Amino acid sequence: xxxxxxxxxxxxxxxxxxxxxxxxxxxxxxxxxxxxxxxxxxxxxxxxxxxxxxxxxxxxxxxxxxxxxxxxxxxxxxxxxxxxxxxxxxxxxxx
Length: 95
What we know:
Elements: E1 2-9, H1 15-29, E2 37-43, E3 49-56, H2 59-66, H3 69-80, E4 88-92
Antiparallel strand pairs: 1-3, 1-4, 2-3
Helix pairs in contact: 1-3
């Protein structure tokens, strides 16, 4: 099982657009086999920091999920919005 947490902070004026972009890829994820992965997105109390939690049964599923066109577009638009080096990816180890 692959478990990942991604956090990043966007500019306040980009929050609404980011939420819409997230909803687009989450809707597309519904067409995939939900038994093979989990993907959840949260916004922190500051209203501008997003946390994405995901887990995948293997690397093939992770690759499939992360290469959905709407997800790639979300990443592009998010990165172009100006993250000020706030983007952080953490791989979690099960105990």
